Amino acid sequence: MRFGTPNGSTAAQVAVRPPNRNLCTTEQRPLTAHLDQSQKPGQRRDNERTREAYRALERLLAAGRVRAISVSNFMPHHLDALMESATVTPAVNQVELHPYFSQPDVQAADAARGILTQAWSPIGGITFYPGYGEERKSVLEDGTIQAIAKQHGKSPAQVMLRRHGQRGRSAIPKSTNPNRIAENFAVFDFELTGDELAAIDGLDTGRRGGPDPDTVDPVSFGLEIPEP
Ligand SMILES: NC(=O)c1ccc[n+]([C@@H]2O[C@H](COP(=O)([O-])OP(=O)(O)OC[C@H]3O[C@@H](n4cnc5c(N)ncnc54)[C@H](OP(=O)(O)O)[C@@H]3O)[C@@H](O)[C@H]2O)c1
């Protein structure tokens, strides 16, 4: 569950009510603060609103209302800014991460702070979802990934998910198809070699498929975020 704007503090408190009911989000996934996305281009996202949203999560953690708290789409400079005021290091940083966009700088910044990097679009959904640019190439159709998959008798998605695990990352693939959900769990009976991991790492283009956390604003999603 995510909170960042416009009033992350209030939203976070509402989300964990009533106190006597278990929320699967707080049991299974950390409560997640996003950067303030109500800002215009050029304005900082790691601002007081973001800090207040995270402070609300810290209070919920201290009160025993959630088991873990996390952040999403925080780049190294956002983590630096957050940790100037935070008292709890986020357990997880959930960021875009697939073979075409591996964000080694974010992974290093997370690791240096003991934060688990969690991949969204872990099998590259953002490289083939409609509406993000027709010139994109689906990572599911990448020749290197397909050759490695064939070598192991696995699917490209399974190779990508296995890579996340072997590289020490968490991954949250999304599927609405029961067969593909089962396929995405069946990644514990093979191992990628060092050369295969290096070959996949080498596919990184350095270009994100999704929005840039420093410039995304409500207009990007056609949203109107009312002032509190
Ligand atoms: N924190 C953030 O800012 C942020 C941003 C974007 C997404 N996310 C989260 O990240 C999660 C996953 O990311 P995502 O949905 O962008 O991308 P993804 O999980 O990499 O890809 C999902 C797409 O791949 C298909 N798929 C799933 N398993 C497959 C398989 N084994 N073989 C072939 N195709 C397969 C799905 O279709 P079917 O459903 O038809 O199987 C869907 O079209 C979502 O739960 C989302 O909420 C977070």
UniProtKB/TrEMBL annotation:
It holds the Pfam family Aldo_ket_red. It comes from the Bacteria. Residues 50-204 form the NADP-dependent oxidoreductase domain. Residues 29-49, 202-228 are annotated as: Disordered. InterPro entries: AKR (IPR020471), Aldo/ket_reductase_CS (IPR018170), NAD(P)_OxRdtase_dom_sf (IPR036812), NADP_OxRdtase_dom (IPR023210). Residues 29-41 have a biased composition (Polar residues). Keywords: NADP, Oxidoreductase. PROSITE patterns: ALDOKETO_REDUCTASE_3 (PS00063). Belongs to the aldo/keto reductase family. This is Aldo/keto reductase. It comes from Promicromonospora vindobonensis. The lineage of its organism: Bacteria, Bacillati, Actinomycetota, Actinomycetes, Micrococcales.
